[in-house]
Amino acid sequence: EVQLVESGGGSVQPGGSLRLSCAATGYTISRYCMGWFRQAPGKEREGVATINSGGGTSYADSVKGRFTISRDNAKKTLYLQMNSLKPEDTAMYYCAADRWMTSAQALNNADAMDYWGKGTLVTISS
Questions:
Q1: How far apart are CA 90 and CA 40, in angstroms?
Q2: Out of 53, 99, 100, 106, which residue is the most buried by the measure of CB atoms under 10 Å away?
Q3: What is the chain's Cα-based Rg?
């Protein structure tokens, strides 16, 4: 069974940087599409960034040029490097994984993702 545990959330000032990590279990996790999703209070959950088993990526328009998703299959870990953070980036960030979808499919189909972590809170304020 795949289990996901996020870490790295915290409070930073606008313009700052933060790196989130997601530690995964599972022998075949390297074959899964993985991604980061977020949900702010009063708003719908949205896809932030996703990555294929082969390394291809997809990003929400709101984070392009600022965020970078990557994975280290040897460490079974997913990362999200967040730069130039804005107050509107404040949200609970969740790590998710799916065996069969591509990154493009997963980005806007959060409900189809099979496995989820419990989330890590990111707060951007001055």
A1: 7
A2: 106
A3: 13
